[in-house]
Amino acid sequence: MARGKGEGGLSRVPKEGPLKYWEASIELPPRDGKRRRKRIRAKDKQKLIKLMRAAQKDLEHAGDLETKVLTVEAWLDTWFRGIAAKKLRPRTARNYRYLIDTKILPVIGARKLDKLTTQDVRDVHDAMLNAGLSSTTALQAHRILAVALKYAVREGRVTRNVATLVDAPQKAAKRLRALTLDEGLKLLDFALRTDDDEQQIEPYASLWAAFILTGAREGELLGLQPDRILELVQGDRRVRALNFSWQLQRFTWEHGCVGSPTVDEEGKTVGACGRKRGTDCPRRHINIPANHEAENLVGGLWLARPKTRSGWRVIPLVEPLQSQILNHIERTRADENPHNLVWHTDKGAPIDPRECNRMWHDLLERAGVPQVRLHDARHTTVDLLLLAGVPVELIKDIVGHSSWLMTEDYKTKAITARHTAAVTSLPEMFAARRIEIQNRDGGIREVS
Fold this sequence. Notes:
It is a single chain. 28% of the residues are buried. The chain folds into four domains: 8-62, no CATH class; 72-165, Tyrosine recombinase, N-terminal domain (DNA polymerase, domain 1), CATH 1.10.150; 181-250 and 306-440, Intergrase catalytic core (hpI Integrase, Chain A, Orthogonal Bundle), CATH 1.10.443; 252-285, no CATH class. The radius of gyration is 30 Å and the shape is elongated. It is an alpha+beta fold. Helix content is 41%, strand content 14%. Strands 1-2-3 form a three-stranded antiparallel β-sheet. A three-stranded antiparallel β-sheet has the order 4-5-11. The longest helix is centred in the C-terminal third of the chain and has 24 residues, at 417-440. Helix 2 packs across helix 5, helix 7 (205-214) runs antiparallel to helix 9 and helix 12 crosses helix 14. The chain is built from 14 helices and eleven strands.
């Protein structure tokens, strides 16, 4: 009589002579009409019985057991390619792949997936922290491993998620350096200065002003198009607004060639096509989830929807920024601009985020103000709005930190008179501080 599912038998190997090990055979559900069994081995008979009973319990709970020896490396590759890459945004997927390949696999990649322990997870943490990486990076790697193991449990590859049994690293506290009101004023005055013919010296002066006065993200401004500068009715007047429903992002091309990577004469890994970079692969591709809207402009630069609904927002465009942007559009109307962007290079190409960062730091140096990240200009905007007494819920709405005020019809309902008054307070504060500084210096020193 054939054994039923979960029924196991013990046998001595070899049957005669010196003992090598004991073996248990557990009957599993057939697959494709073929009989399947899982074999468990141990030199100690009592230990084997415990392992067999544990496996039978797992079989009863999961309904099936994995028969192949699966390493952590093999599973993470299967999970990333078959599951994660199809759901994640390209930039997030690239970060996942980097942490998997450089931080997780070197430590536990060779471990058998079903033998993974809590100490193995701690070893990943310790290796990263001992290498001088921040606890925030270690936390990211921990979360990736935890998600991958969650799917392994779901598919019956393992019976428990050991990453959830380990305390995750604490997120490191950040010390942000944002420009003060005086520093922001000095930077704006420097960027907006004009020559004898009243022509602005800085070609992207309106862009730098927009960073300070709107709190917008880099990609939101670099991807702004004139048709998303709206004119809305607000009570008995018409106001202009910026619609941040798209942003410019750089995505990394991946190899699409068929075959395993190889190593060239210099010891560098190259794709099956013989090229190192994915962008040079004849069959290059970018994994973009089906629910994610994106449009390729040129090379690796794309227009993409914001990551969260909080980014789908509209903020008032007030003076003097309104005139700065509209004048810039008018001055560059005859320029080559195939992608219809408000700010672009002199050849009509999108401004690469890396080049934008370089120009930002160059501007800070020439203006004589402290070096801060371009992204931290958002923090300057938040600080200024708080200083102006703007309620927190409006600040969240303006800079896109929360989506609880948003509606499906965000294009018009996000703008209220309170939002306009809040944003208007920023240029008013700058104007007031300019007068204050001039009066303090007897009106002699030019603010620059």
